[in-house]
Amino acid sequence: MIKKLLARDTAETHRVATPLELLFDLSFVVAVAQAAASLHHAVSENHAGAGLLAFCMAFFALWLPWLNFTWFASAFDNDDTLYRIITMVQIAGVLVIAAGIPAVFEHQDYRIVVSGYVVIRLAMVTHWLRAARDNPAHKACAYRYAGGIAAMQVLWVLWLFVPPGLALALWVLGMLTELLIPAWAERTTATTWHPHHIAERHGLFTLIVLGESILAATLAFQKGFDSGVNLISLAAASLIIVFSVWWIYFEAPSHLLNLKKAFLWGYAHLFILGSIAALGAGLAASVDYDLHIAHAPGTTVAAFTTVPLAVFLLCVWYVQDCPGQAGVRKYLLPLGALAVLAATFGPAPIHVTAGIALVLCIATRLVQSADQRVAA
């Protein structure tokens, strides 16, 4: 059945992720796993700089389509036949990106990734054109989204043919332009996104990305058992770090009070989610280092755990924790980030980082409990 793609009520009760959205997220499990695994191998082979650049470009190609679809679905999802088919085309595009990620890391070949990206984004254009047709009040906004996204796909295809010396600068310019499209489109009539739904969707994607770090801990157990090397303490430290990331992210409520704050909160998740994925790659590289099969220096390997965790702590503090806190609690996560960075250069950096992360979890809970007692 084909229905009108009408804007949904922002105050709708019991709004949760749909089975189609969960299937959409499932495709990203594969793609994020490819990006994290490729970064892991790049770090272990001492190609950290090139690997990090490839990871950033690949992860952006995954994150932005997920973000745009999630906010669109929050505003217009009607779950009719056409909506499902268009979304499934987007899922196919995600899998094309996943298939092309190894070529990005190994040969700096972006053709497959760009092809998958264009498939996802042109399907998104179709969604927006339907919304423009069925919602006169949102027509200008929807047409701006559709036109801006479509124009960018032409530019991304042309980007494949630019000289290598200009590729990075033009990619940054294209990325910034993509990020400006929503701000430009929403200046007409803001879409009717649902705050609770958006917070839940980002939380679910955070859990997906955290799975890569859990996989790294599992890898430590497995390789330790297979090789006879005792990696139990490394696996335990990895799990503590993963549990702490989960604890800290979900400890503070989301601040989606208006469109301006929502833009800041949503875009900050590029760094939150990217840092979690990179953290998983760093933990996996630490396993290689302890097994003496990594070619990178210990400080480099450690930095791919400590730096992503520090970035995560600062971003969560800025967009979720800091706005609602005062006193000591307001400075816990920044101080923790500094301590984590310092651990990079000390002995047993992963174990020390795990200890810092655990202390942060305990401290935030104690301070929160104290604040609640004062409020009562």
Descriptive overview:
The protein is 80% helix and 0% strand. It has 12 helices and no strands. α2 runs parallel beside α4 and α11 runs antiparallel to α12. The termini are far apart.
Structural descriptors:
0% strand; globular; mainly alpha; single chain; 376 residues; 80% helix
Structural topology:
Elements (H helix, E strand, L loop, with lengths): L18 H26 L3 H29 L4 H27 L3 H24 L4 H21 L4 H22 L9 H33 L4 H20 L7 H32 L7 H24 L7 H15 L5 H27 L1
Shape: globular
| Head-to-tail CA distance between termini | 53 Å
* SSE class: mainly alpha
Give the helix level as a range of percent.
Answer: over 70%
DSSP, total strands: 0
Query: Can you count the helices?
Result: 12
Radius of gyration: 21 Å
Mean pLDDT: 90
What is the succession of H and E elements? HHHHHHHHHHHH
Q: Describe the biggest sheet?
A: none
Contiguous low-pLDDT stretches (5 residues minimum) are: none
Strand content: under 5%
